[in-house]
Specification:
The complex is a heterodimer of chains A (244) and B (253).
Chain A (H helix, E strand, L loop, with lengths): L7 E10 L2 E11 L4 E5 L6 H8 L7 E6 L2 E2 L5 H8 L2 E4 L11 H12 L4 H14 L15 H13 L5 E5 L7 H18 L2 E5 L3 H7 L2 E6 L2 E6 L1 H5 L4 H7 L1
Parallel strand pairs in A: 3-8, 3-9, 6-7, 7-8
Antiparallel strand pairs in A: 1-2, 1-4, 4-5, 9-10
Helix pairs in contact in A: 3-4, 5-6, 6-7
Chain B lengths: L1 H24 L6 H40 L6 H39 L2 H7 L4 H40 L3 H10 L3 H27 L5 H34 L2
Helix pairs in contact in B: 2-3, 2-5, 3-5, 3-6, 3-7, 3-8, 5-7, 7-8
Chain lengths: 244, 253
């Protein structure tokens, strides 16, 4: 079995939790440097799909390839090595709430780099300045707003300069201004670093800003795939309802 | 039947979790900084509770026992009785039960809330070995701190008992100490204190297990905390029976 050339390839992915079938043969394809938005209503298996890409969930059937490696067959050590090349932005940010913002970033950096303390501090300040929160370093996550948490979580996700960014609902629950800020940051990542991004979202503003390709999931299956305009102009009732 | 099956399933799952703990224990990284932080959290934040508990045990035991012993003309052996009962049994068990409530629930709630807010997944995705970082450090901290807190409880309980004796019968300090320690053997002190390491292990492993695999939301986190306290306390009591039996075999009565 030869490895696919695309950065991320998911083939015929199936997953059930007990009797509930969540994914029923989903396939996804993301070229290097592209941004794919996976869209659909709640409970259609979008987050489950994303968690498969970093081995947080094991599939019942199907193949998951990331950078030419079959994720679902990697041993623990190889999986961890691959994970260092993938940044993951969780839906609620998932910042470690017992740590300040700079400790959140330093925690990841300290474990996986050989930088001195001074170099790490410089890199952390650079990262939080990049997300426009230079004064948040000493704050705890509980002291930040939803949008600020997302931005710090994004800074943490990219602190190791990954090749791939996976975003689970990056703009859910944010006001329109924050949606635009977070979306613009994701766009800048692609422009400045050539990062491949898969973003789970049902936020059309975010999808419009960041995605050059979209997949629409419904009941665990990919109902339609194409550019955002192609999806928007589809005459399928579910897509019409989604895009309004 | 269903209850028995569920209980056996839980016992098996906790045993497997404990097995993972031992499997990870000697593997790198050793998380020394987090271990020290957890020991500090476990020790410093539980110390006041343990001291108050110990003091009240000592005072109450002294008050309750004096009258009973006086009826048999044995009031003079009060310090011996206090020392034996506090150091051999009441101190270790009450300390462990109090800590099962405080730490068992705290660990389960903390890990449970980290699970439902995806912080454990975030550690996993960042290749940071959450089991090692969260579970191994907490369990080791409890294994080390339970005996130290028990010693603190024992000392304060004896001081409380002495203070009560002083108020009631003007007992000389040296006489109290001489009598109290004359009946204690080194093996009593060492074994009774060391067994709380086992209690610490049981309380923390159950707390970690209950929190680590929480699914759902805040309701489930609350249930996990409650389960951790109930199972942890029961395990302390069952383990105590076994440990006392073992001490009788090893050291006699």
């Amino acid at each position: 079995m030869s490895a696919p050339e695309a950065e991320i390839v998911v083939k015929e992915l199936h997953k059930a939790f007990g009797d509930r079938k969540i994914l029923r043969g989903v396939s996804v394809h993301a070229e290097r440097g592209s941004t794919v938005a996976v869209m659909g209503g709640s409970g259609t298996g979008k987050s489950v799909l994303l968690k498969h890409l970093v081995g947080l969930i094991e599939p019942d059937a199907g193949e998951i390839w990331v950078q030419g490696k079959r994720v679902d067959q990697l041993n623990r050590s190889d999986l961890n090595e691959l994970r260092l090349r993938v940044g993951y932005l969780f839906q609620g940010g998932a910042l470690f709430d017992s740590m300040t913002v700079d400790e959140n970033l330093d925690f990841v950096l300290r474990r996986h780099s050989k930088l001195s303390r001074r170099e790490r501090i410089e890199q952390i300040h650079e990262a939080i300045a990049w997300v426009n929160l230079p004064h948040a370093a000493e704050q705890y996550p509980a002291e930040l707003s939803g949008g600020q948490k997302k931005r710090i979580a994004l800074a943490r996700a990219i602190i190791l300069r990954p090749d791939i960014l996976l975003c689970d609902e990056p703009t859910t629950g944010l006001d329109p201004a924050s949606v635009r800020t977070v979306s613009d940051l994701i766009m800048r990542l692609r422009a400045e670093r050539g990062i491949t991004t898969i973003a789970i979202t049902h936020d059309l503003l975010c999808a419009d800003i960041i995605a050059d390709h979209g997949i629409f999931l419904s009941r665990g299956r990919a109902l339609a795939e194409g550019t955002l305009n192609e999806l928007r102009s589809s005459d399928h009732p579910e897509l019409q309802a989604f895009f309004g | 039947m269903r209850f028995i099956a569920y209980t056996l399933e839980q016992v098996g799952a906790i045993a497997a979790f404990a097995g993972t703990f031992f499997g990870q224990l000697f593997r790198r990284p050793f998380e020394g900084r987090e271990l020290i932080r957890q020991m500090d959290e476990t020790g410093s934040k539980s110390l006041l509770l343990v001291l108050i508990t110990g003091c009240s045990i000592g005072i109450v035991l002294s008050m309750q026992s004096r009258g009973t012993l006086a009826r048999f003309g044995a009031e003079a052996v009060l310090p011996n009785m206090l020392a034996l009962s506090v150091v051999k049994e009441i101190g270790p068990v009450i300390t462990s039960l109090v800590l099962a409530g405080r730490l068992g629930a705290g660990i389960a709630a903390e890990l449970g809330s980290m699970r439902v807010t995806e912080q454990i997944d975030a550690l996993e995705v960042a290749a940071l070995q959450p089991f090692k970082y969260l579970v191994v450090t907490r369990v080791l901290a409890c294994v080390v701190m339970f005996p130290l807190l028990t010693i603190a409880c024992d000392v304060v309980a004896l001081l409380g008992g002495y203070a009560e004796s002083l108020l009631s019968s003007d007992l000389d300090y040296r006489l109290f100490v001489d009598q109290a320690f004359s009946s204690l053997r080194l093996s009593d002190v060492l074994f009774s204190t060391a067994k709380t390491s086992v209690f610490g292990f049981l309380v923390s492993i159950v707390g970690c297990y209950s929190g680590y695999y929480v699914r759902g939301g805040t309701r489930e986190v609350g249930q996990a905390a409650m389960r951790a306290v109930v199972i942890g306390s029961l395990l302390v009591l069952v383990a105590d029976v076994l440990m006392v039996r073992l001490s009788l075999i090893l050291f006699g009565g």
